[in-house]
Design a protein that fits this description.
single chain; 322 residues; alpha/beta; Rossmann fold; five-stranded parallel sheet; four-stranded parallel sheet; binds phosphoric acid mono(formamide)ester
């Protein structure tokens, strides 16, 4: 059989922002991700839910995890997957994002997975095409599949997020991961905390639905999970922290620091990770406390769920192609 064997009318053409989702959407995505996780842990990984559909991964910024897992997810579901890298494309010759998208749409792309340095780029792409668009990170705005995979990994470990206290610590100012995570964690009933140096705390963060701290030991109190974020040097004009060594001393996660959190609190990181800056390498590698590689594993399954549900809708809206 080609197509998904799962009947649910996912009420979205695209995945651009966590703000578009409700708790039922998240529940359905987690349920499908659980299904795919079980499937990919067996040798029988190849499915055909996206058979006949073309998925283009359109990356204008570097990526290891997101691009690889969307490629793996699409291929495991039977899509024809094309990887587009801005560095080796005609974007280098001055072609605009809009013209790039129009050309790819003319090749009958069904799903576009978009990463771009500009906030709003994925929504811009969605307005130009009938293909399903997945936001794989747009500037400092959002990274919805990262938040979904984080919440999925955490739900699996904690058995639910209702009433759980989750801290996000690090470069909140430049983080699309933090912006998506705060929304989703709130949607799922968690209590969210943010901690950063004042220079890396966005103006208005107190209005995001999270408690804001500058001192890590205070912020950690009673937390069930702590997510460390990288310093995004590529988005900094400079001078926002005194030095990496100083930063680690005040905001770096270590086993000792974690004593202030709830017993058995877990640590997370979306990657890429800078060991010895935002997190101690020994803590990152501690399998009893660290969910970091779990996040990556379940991320591929979660992205299969996203592609499956959006792919079904793309099939309905593309005039029955495939
Ligand atoms: N978490 C994340 O987006 O990692 P990549 O930049 O490697 O895709």
């Amino acid at each position: 059989m080609s197509g998904s064997d799962f009947a649910y009318d996912f009420p979205h053409r695209n995945l651009l922002s966590i703000a578009d989702l409700n708790p039922l959407d998240a529940e359905i995505l987690f349920s499908r991700a659980s299904h795919w996780l079980e499937a990919i842990r067996t040798a029988n990984r190849k499915k055909d839910a996206l058979k006949g559909l073309t998925q283009i991964n359109l990356f204008f910024e570097p990526s290891t995890r997101t691009q690889a897992s969307f490629e793996i997810a699409g291929k495991r579901l039977g899509a024809d997957v094309v990887n587009f890298s801005a560095a080796s494309s005609s974007a280098k010759k001055g072609e605009s994002l809009a013209d790039t998208v129009r050309n790819l749409a003319a090749m009958q792309a069904d799903i576009l997975v978009v990463r771009h340095p500009a906030a709003g780029a994925a929504a811009h792409v969605a307005a130009l095409t009938n293909a399903a668009v997945v936001n794989a990170g747009d500037g400092m705005h959002e990274h919805p599949t990262q938040a979904l995979l984080d919440a999925f990994a955490l739900t699996r470990r904690l058995g639910g997020l209702g009433g759980r206290r989750v801290l996000i610590v690090g470069d909140i100012l430049h983080s699309r991961v933090a912006r998506s995570n705060v929304q989703l964690l709130n949607l799922l009933g968690a209590e969210v905390r943010l901690c950063a140096p004042p220079t890396l705390t966005p103006v208005g963060a107190a209005g995001w639905g999270a408690q804001v701290f500058t001192r890590l030991d205070e912020a950690l109190e009673g937390c069930d999970a702590v997510m460390a974020l990288r310093l995004q040097r590529e988005r900094m004009a400079g001078g926002l922290i005194p030095s990496e060594r100083e930063y680690f001393r005040f905001w770096g996660l270590t086993h000792k620091r974690l004593d202030a959190a709830a017993p058995d609190a877990v640590v997370m990181h979306p990657g890429p990770m800078n060991r010895g800056v935002e997190i101690d390498g020994a803590l990152a590698d501690d399998e009893a406390r660290s969910l970091i590689l779990d996040q990556v594993e379940v991320g591929a399954a979660l992205r299969m769920a996203v592609l499956e549900l959006l792919g079904e809708n793309a099939r309905k809206h593309n005039g029955g192609r495939a």
